[in-house]
Amino acid sequence: MSQAPPSTQLRIALLPGDGIGREIAGPAAALAEAAGSRHGLRLAWTEYDWNCDHFRRTGSMMPADGLEQLAGHDAILLGAVGSPEVPDHVSLWGLLIPIRRTFRQRVNLRPTRRLPGIPGPLRSQKPVDFVVIRENVEGEYSEIGGRLYHGTEDEIAVQESVFTRRGLIPVMRFAFDLARKRSGKLTAATKSNGIIHTMPFWDQVFGELAGEYPDVATRRVHVDALAAELVLRPETHDVIVASNLFGDILTDLGAAVAGSLGVAASANIDPTGDHPSMFEPVHGSAPDIAGRGIANPIAMCWSAALMLEHLGQAAAAADIMTAIERVTAAGEALTPDLGGKAGTAEAGAALLAALPR
Prior knowledge:
This protein is α/β, with parallel strands linked by helices and about 350 residues long. It has eleven helices and twelve strands. Strands 2-1-3-12-11-4-5-10-8-9 form a ten-stranded mixed sheet, with helices on both faces. Strand 6 and strand 7 (about 155-160) form a beta hairpin. It is globular and about 55 Å long.
């Protein structure tokens, strides 16, 4: 009789957030817990109700010591942030962005894979499996800038992009290391023909690091041409590294190519390991379908798999991905975004049932 594996406990902060985040958090946590238990893993959850409702009650998205509370966890699993009643810049900059920046989550890893049984919108149904490494804390999404002469014909808005060598090197190195583990191909998204300061600097740092990885074949592609390639020939790409803005746009395009934002997962990683990393679906809070019980839990579940893999629990993560692929291949418990009629609870139950025994 085989012995049970030794028990390991991980402390996970669960932030369901807003809208459909509250509906998909439960199924994802249940799936992660069930997958972990098969490998001697115990997940100790602490749930936080920090969201737009919290903002309406208190005037802030999280308490003053919120980041201190999160710092003691091994990882953070987040559902979604945003509500029509709260401006996006308030909700995002009050919760999501401070977590990413305070915990130095410089790497935003976003995988795109065409799951079995889910036809994408493209005529070609060749396998698609690429990863975008997005710079996550600076770039075009800086706080530097401002507005003058509000409400007059002279009104002006200025937004500064910030690219630092200290910020770019760990992100690009992460991408090179990942490319080395996968196919040995890495593409850098650029726009140095039109953006004359930050993008040539991006290209320069990329070129310097490429010299340290002679076994990795590199390309620099203008982001507009790269977007066209991801539509025309997505199967030719493997690892892409991109700035904050470009990576954000390319990964939403990738999700569309894969069939739905409902299957798009992501990881916000501190490459030093000094702080907890955060895992979340790419999609937002989807207020148009919130409360209807039809949200797709797959992206949140895949994000939970990325979390377990990051925490050294590769076998449990692989079990989650097996369950996801079994459910999509069967096609019997798909939510409306994937052409099915299942609700969130039914899809979540199917994923649990599909875990390897």
